[in-house]
Amino acid sequence: MKPLDIGSRLSRDFPVDGHYLIGVSGGRDSVALLHWLVNLGYKKLIVCHLNHQLRGRSSDADARFVQKLVDRYNQEFVEQAPRHPGSRTGKRSARPTTRRPDFHFELGAVNVRALATKQKMSIETAAREARYEFFAQTARHRNCKTIFLGHHADDLVETFLINLFRGAGTTGLSGVRENSTRRIGDVNLTIVRPLLGLWRKEIDSYVREHRITFREDASNENLNPLRNRFRHRIIPYLEKIFGRNIRPAIWRAAAIAGEEEDWIDRQLPDSTNAELSVAKLRALPVALQRRAILKWLRAQKVSEVGFDVIERVRSLIDQHARVAKVNLARNRHARRRAGKIFVE
User: Fold this and answer.
1) Which residue ranges form the domains of the chain, and what is each CATH number?
2) pTM for the whole structure
3) DSSP state string for 305-338
4) For residue range 216-270, what is the model confidence (pLDDT) as tens digits?
């Protein structure tokens, strides 16, 4: 997918004169996405930044950086506009804009470490859940239900492999999608990832070429988080074994899984209820039972969901099963009572 094609399709599906949220951490990918969207003509962006409070003064500095970035776009965009990622000419827009941009900054803060402890989640899961809750609150406040995020092709590959090793099946393999809808509370948030067809090296080149400043997160080099181990150790090792770049093939497999999952997802019962109906679950084919349970567990914010967990929950619908309670991650449980399955 060429960057120009991405921009053309994006502006067709999401007109440039609309209001949109954009998640900006201050890191390379999200800052590059903001830069590119501005060039495409998106001038009504609400920049959302959540301070996770995980890195002390560095986290506070990230928030200040993003706010200054928004201020600078509001001040300077009239004089000159940047170009899109992938363009090799380095030329700026020949026709200056005549309409002032309308960028806004929304800041949130959550003690993610405390949240992870309270909710019995990993730091990574708690941070992700906190971000989406913040995005949903902002969407409700701003009456704007579409958000742009800076995930790219390497993120898709990493997510695919992580979920593959967790045994999540094709539901998990679809992982990150270009366009998706996520219900958070009473908000149906449309999530758009315009850079999902671009590789990290392409974004790096764009950032260098335009001398875009961003905040470097030292935790990206920390090998404790699973994603970082896949990024820095496992994928390079697999490429060494195969003797070639395996990422495009994995990206294609993830894209195909995502398209198939979109169709299958529409066949599943509603997953937003706090309880699952045993009778309705029994009526489904086994394949859809597993998918329905996975979707429901995720809606209940259950972490570390793999095949074994899904099968334990599925065992609760067996008419002859004596066990009415199974273990989940983080000291949580799924229980069957009065024809319903719920998480406690």
Assistant:
1) 3-240 (3.40.50.620), 275-343 (1.20.59.20)
2) 0.77
3) --HHHHHHHHGGG-TT----EEE-GGG-EEEEET
4) 877 777 777 788 999 999 999 999 999 999 999 999 998 888 888 778 777 776 6
